[in-house]
Write a structure and sequence with these properties.
This protein is an alpha/beta fold and 237 residues long. The protein has one domain (3-207): P-loop containing nucleotide triphosphate hydrolases (Rossmann fold, 3-Layer(aba) Sandwich), CATH 3.40.50. Helix content is 51%, strand content 16%. The strands form 2 sheets. It has a 5-stranded parallel sheet, with helices on both faces. It has a 3-stranded antiparallel sheet with strand order 3-4-5. Strand 4 (80-83) and strand 5 form a beta hairpin. The longest helix is centred in the last third of the chain and has 27 residues, at 210-236.
Length: 237
Amino acid sequence: MSREIIAIDGPAAAGKTTVGRRLAARLGWRFLDTGLVYRALTWLAHQHGVPADDTPGLLRLVPLLDLRAGAPHEAKSATTVWIGGQEVTDALRDPAIDADVSLVARQPAIRAALIALQRRAVGDGPAVVAGRDIGTVIFPDARLKIYLDASPEERARRRAAELASRGASASLEAERAAILRRDALDSQRTAAPLTVAPDAVRIVTDGLTAEQVVERIQTLWAQRQSTSTGRAGATGQ
């Protein structure tokens, strides 16, 4: 039986978080950005001096993580990460985290250890969940699966703009190179590689605003709900 979840997967800077958060706010659902859990573990590793490829060391840090899905009534419906009673969400976008997070996320034992944490963060209610393996591993029973994509050039432009908004300098070429490196690491890892689920709808976001993408997904969800209702009615006759 499918769960009332919209899974949004895709590569770095494809717009998953922005679109997912706005979609959840429209639907009145919770929103979970699962990429933050890997960023949080990478941040913890930096704090404790644990190398990004030290699997046993990273596993010892997993119990320290507390991932919370944002509710629609909360500011920005934002996913938050807590460690030791302190919220560290804002610290997780540091470029130093970008450099190591794929190395952390590619380790099979780490990914397996974080599955339960991601599922618990959502709870039992409806949710929009964004990441890279949501429709294939975390919630393979999601009722609607979306794969957001964009060209490396468009994603580099978005990432540079995001960094600039936080006062950090970035060149388009450097960001494009970093994105291509991240794509290679994410798609070539042995555990839950970045891939398009067979039943996912792929949306290329080049030239589209976040609101236009949200509208497309909302339309797809309405169609999916209408189809489900029609099948239920036919069964009941």
